[in-house]
Each structure stands twice: as C-alpha cells, then as structure tokens.
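User: Study the fold:
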Amino acid sequence: MKSFLYVPEGSDFTIHNLPFGIFKGGDRIAACSRIGDVVIDLGMAVTTGIFDTLNLPQGIFENRYLNPFISLGKPQTGGVRLLLQSGLCEGGLLDNDIYRESRIFLPAEDVEMLLPLEIGDYTDFYSSREHATNVGIMFRDPANALLPNWLHLPVGYHGRASSIVVSGTDIKRPSGQTMPEGADKPVFGPTRQLDFELEMAFVIGRNTHMGSSISAHDAEHYIFGCMLFNDWSARDIQKWEYVPLGPFLAKNFASTVSPWIVTLEALEPFRVPGPVQEPAVLPYLEYEGNKNYDIHLTVEIENEAGLSKTVSNSNFKYMYWNMCQQLAHHTVNGCNVRVGDLMASGTISGPESGSYGSMLEICWKGTRPVVMPDGSERRFILDGDTVRMRGWCEKDGIRVGFGPCDGKILP
C-alpha cells in the first residue's frame, strides 16, 4: 500500500497505522486519524461518503472523547480504519483535488492533540520480571528478589484516573512525607527522587457486567488499542508510604499518555512469543498464540538548555505477563470494566542496564548517575527536565508508531 499523501521516512504514522485521537483546531474539536504530517478530520471525512456502508451514528466523530466511537465495537471501528486506509491509497476515494484542498486534511502542526479518552478507571500492573527483580534486589534479599506471589499472578493496583494527562502537559513536582536516611521522624516537602516509569497502556473497548469475567482467550476482543504511558513516581514518598497498602501519593499526582491510540489490528504484524512462564500458571491465565508485541521503546531526558540524552532503549516484548493475562486476572473476581478504562503494563525493563525503564534502576538507587551532555548528573529527574518517550514497531518495510509521550517538570 502507498498513500497519495507524503509520508516522511521514519514517520510513526504510515498508512499501515492510522491511529485514532481527538484534535482541537480553532473552535473545532473532533475525532481524527493521522498519516505522515497530516491529521485527518474524521467528521469532515464523513461528508465524502467514505464510511456510508458502515451506517455509523450521525455525529459519532463530533464528540469530545473517543468513548462513543469505541463503544460501536470492532466491526465498525475496524471498518472505519480499513475504509480510511483504502481511501488514502493512490487512486482511492480521497485521492482527488477537491478533498485534498478541503478541511479534511490538516497540517499536524496547526492542531492541538487532546486527551482522547474519558477515563473512568485506571489500573497499573507490575508485570516486568526484570523490573520486579531489580527492585527486589535493591530493597530486599537479592536471593529472594521476587515476592512469593509474583510468578503466579499479574500484580496490580488501582491508580488515579483524574490525573492522567496528554503528552505535552507540564507536571508540577509533587510534595509529601518522606523519611530521610538516619532521621527519627518524617518531614514534608517536594520529592527529591522524582522518577519516570516507561510503560504501555491498553484501552478497554467493551463494557462488561459486574459479576462476569473475561477469559485470557477472549481478552483481545475487549482491547481497542494501545498507548505510550509514563507513570511518574516519587520514590522517596513511595518508600515511606507504601507499607502496608502500596502506592498512593507517590503515584497519583500525574501520569502522561501519548495522544494517539494505535489499534490492535495495526499491531498485528508485530506479535512475538512471550517468555516461558515457570511455574505453570493457573488455568484461567493460560493462553495460546503470540500475545507479546515487538515494540521498540526509548526514553530521553532533555534539560532546560535543550541538551538531551537517551537513557533507555527497551522493548514491550520483554513483559512476563501479557495484556490478555492482565485483563483475565483483573476480571476473574467479577470486576466489571467499561469502555475507556486504561490498564498500564507496569515499568518495562529489559535484561541489560541500557534497557531499564526507570531512573531507580538506570542509576541503581542513585549510585550510578547519568551524565548529561553538559556534564551535569542525573540520579532522578530535576526541575526543568523534559522526559520524552517514544515507541514504534518496524518489520518488512512496515512501520507503526505511537507519537510523543512528553512531560516537563515544573517546581
């Protein structure tokens, strides 16, 4: 497939991708897709008749969030993507001067991308064996780094949906209680150990009823697509507060997501086997086929002077527990899910230090600082720093990417 629209080499947004998002241009807010450096206004595209065979509800693309569109189900949402893909090919329905000069195609630089989901609930998992092992070595017995339950279930916790923000939103450094080394009582103040967590998130695409569950076999029918996700963390606050119930203020102040939702259909060519799971999982967590995805991930820190350094090169394929197992475990007790709910993978770390997904690991609890191009050191993230995450898949000439997941820290 080749589009009549120009797609720069190395673009995340090829004709094989066509993700979904919400844009704002002037007073207009609507659902959109993207190819190359062009944002496609789906509400305007409807006027061409390109989606007529799908009998879409009137105004479905004119909503502030994608939830109503996602709720249509994969036959229709997938149909929109396929018809758009066909229309964007050379000689396709949209390949004529009338449409190319209309308001269907907008320069990406002229629009603002908004948070595309109304997120009712958000769950964060802890599913990278390498990450869990590293944390266990740092804070517990290295010989027993993994807790007894870790190899038997996808560990997770319920996070805060209200503080999930779209890429480009500034993040204020959080404050809270910490217990300084050697102190006999806690102190209050801004975190001194602000960290990122490199994650992927998946979007729930179907509602379920309370009391029902989703099997690992059927889970993909309930997953609309994926986004990049940065679960900002205040490590010193976390260390003091997490016993006995787990993360609270150290996590709920902000999480950053990319503005584009890449569908599972677009990710289909990039399936890979997951790691061997030993001991064998319980029957409800069993699955067949390749459920991991070969998604290259990078993290870059940029200081206020614009000097940057890549601190992580990782991959989503490393995850021990896959999305289907996470969703099956989440609902096995009868917990219902709703369209637009977000489930984050947990920190994605690989086997080598260059593939670790947090500063906690990269700098090994502050003992191995990162040296920036200007000679300054980073053990954690400083005020004025911008953390930039990127993710993409590439195989046999096909490239699919997620766009930016960026956040700047303010004092």
User: Anything to note?
Assistant: The first strand starts at residue 21 and ends at 25. The mean pLDDT is 97. The chain has two domains: 21-114, 122-410. The chain has nine helices and 27 strands.
